[in-house]
């Protein structure tokens, strides 16, 4: 069980599941022998109750009770939202990716374009 105060920052890399996002958390460490930065990452499945996140958002995640077999974190806040755009048919586009139509509960006034 994760530490109850554990928090990470990362980028959303997937939103294909209902109320769940995949977040990639990167760590940079100095290699002890070569003395150069080495990047490593870990992917976490995170609970997103309101389904506000899209691919490209920079988010803060917080540990919580185990919600399912693989979900131990919940969405804390969206630190830096990705650029969002809507076409004439109402489809959501972010950073060159096309997504399904906007859910009815999606609050457009929450984001400034």
TrEMBL record:
Q: Where is the signal peptide?
A: none
Q: Which domain of life is it from?
A: Eukaryota
Q: Recall the GO molecular function terms of this protein's record.
A: structural constituent of ribosome
What Gene3D superfamilies has UniProt attached to this entry? Answer: Nucleic acid-binding proteins
Q: Which GO terms describe its biological process?
A: translation
Q: Does the keyword Acyltransferase apply?
A: no
Return the InterPro entries for the record: NA-bd_OB-fold, Ribosomal_uS17
Q: Output the CDD domains linked to this UniProt entry.
A: Ribosomal_uS17
Q: Which controlled-vocabulary keywords does the entry list? A: Ribonucleoprotein, Ribosomal protein
> Keyword Disulfide bond on this protein?
no
| Family classification | Belongs to the universal ribosomal protein uS17 family.
Q: What is this protein called?
A: Ribosomal protein S17
Q: Which organism is it from?
A: Boothiomyces macroporosus
